[in-house]
Amino acid sequence: MSTEIIKQNPFQSMIDRFNIAADILNLDESIKQKLQRPEKQIVVNFSITLDNGTEKNFEGYRVIHNTALGPSKGGIRYDTAVNLDEVKALAAWMTWKSAVTGIPFGGAKGGIICDPRTLSKTELERITRAYTKALADIFGPEKDVPAPDMGTGPDEMGWLMDEFSLVHGKTIHAVVTGKHLHSGGSLGRVEATGRGVSIITLLALEKLKIRPAKSTAAIQGFGNVGLHSALFLYEKGVKIVAVSDVSEAFYNPDGINIPELILYYNLNNKTIKGYPNSVAIKHEDLLLLDVDVLIPAAKEDVITQKNAKDIRAKIIIEAANGPVSSDADKILHENSVLVVPDILANAGGVTVSYFEWLQNSLLESWRIHQINKRLEDILEKGFETVFRVAAKHDVTPRIAAYIIALKKVAETQSVKEVALEAPQFKQN
Ligand SMILES: NC(=O)C1=CN([C@@H]2O[C@H](COP(=O)(O)OP(=O)(O)OC[C@H]3O[C@@H](n4cnc5c(N)ncnc54)[C@H](O)[C@@H]3O)[C@@H](O)[C@H]2O)C=CC1
Ligand SMILES: O=C(O)CCC(=O)C(=O)O
């Protein structure tokens, strides 16, 4: 019999945590059912002409999980592993993330099954425009507002904004966030998720009374989130001893010079492969290093029942969405590993996306220090609230974050439903 543990479904991980928090809140069964399921799941198929002249079909998704707190918000992922269950989980996490941080948005997520590394820029543009056209009735500044996620960035968001504007016959900046500045983007959005991760990491270190300048960290993933998390923590004196991307993982006990690594990455087609000043290690071993902070910043389910017992980090900051599966939660808790959950730890991105959406809607342009200060205030407040609720209910920070989010969304959803059911009186 195989001893291989089956990879946990990220949607199931979301539901497992949801159920624990819902039971503590004593949530009504009907509202529980409603909040577990997405409001809408859309599958689109479209084809584009590749650069070599052939036609290729692509499948894409957009899942709107919940809109009780506001227009749905969430990134679009380009990856070969994209599937509906993954997008459903990511969409629900967006709902809880906005609720925990007090951002007036609901949750959504999208994705296209493709490998962006093998597609040219013009092919990516055609894919993005075709996907946008197929979803032109779903997106909208007051309806559903996409943003970047794995495999996408300001280019894709700019094309989406342009295509949506073409369909609607006018320029509509606020339909998407994470755009280039010249397309109506906000200062600070590119680095916002990593900045948020660093703010949360420093707060977690403080909780365990570890001085940043005496601490060590390992970071999995060196894309938008991993790179900026590494840079900001390096600037605060944290010694980053290991980093990885999909091509390579490496270790340097004396600490990696992150600005130098970023220079190397930019000169080498956005990969860290072959960086000289360190020792190559196995990808999976990065997660098991004896460090103060482990920052998974790549993808879901990298810490599971299989390796959780071997984790030696004191703190895990979930920079990625869903890097720890629910079957690993108990093991980590029993081993006193402090896990700061994704729906708080990586909320810096959606927070500055909210600022971008506000600036677009108000035709304003904010200064960077104003943006960073507001971001810091929101995340500090989120962190304090999560840890206060965790202490009150004697639960992990993750379950505390779910309690806060579910309570807020359930209350708003219930009020809306009562209003819908109320008899309509005719006015004279
Ligand atoms: N971009 C954003 O603003 C936000 C992203 N996130 C989450 O953060 C995570 C990363 O997203 P981005 O940085 O935007 O994506 P990205 O596409 O910019 O970077 C992903 C990185 O992960 C690496 N990677 C992939 N598989 C790996 C593996 N097996 N081992 C090691 N590294 C691996 C890639 O090589 C790349 O360096 C995702 O879970 C995403 O949902 C969360 C909040 C906001
Ligand atoms: O910036 C946003 O609106 C959403 C970013 C995102 O997809 C996420 O937080 O997972």
Automatic annotation (TrEMBL):
Chain ranges of the Glutamate/phenylalanine/leucine/valine/L-tryptophan dehydrogenase C-terminal domain: 186-417
Matching InterPro entries: Aminoacid_DH-like_N_sf, Glu/Leu/Phe/Val/Trp_DH, Glu/Leu/Phe/Val/Trp_DH_C, Glu/Leu/Phe/Val/Trp_DH_dimer, Glu/Leu/Phe/Val_DH_AS, Glu_DH, NAD(P)-bd_dom_sf, NAD_bind_Glu_DH
Keywords, alphabetical: Oxidoreductase
CDD domains, per the entry: NAD_bind_1_Glu_DH
Keyword Oxidoreductase found: yes
Pfam families named among the record's database cross-references: ELFV_dehydrog (PF00208), ELFV_dehydrog_N (PF02812)
Family: Belongs to the Glu/Leu/Phe/Val dehydrogenases family.
Name under which the protein is recorded: Glutamate dehydrogenase
Organism: Flavobacterium ginsengiterrae
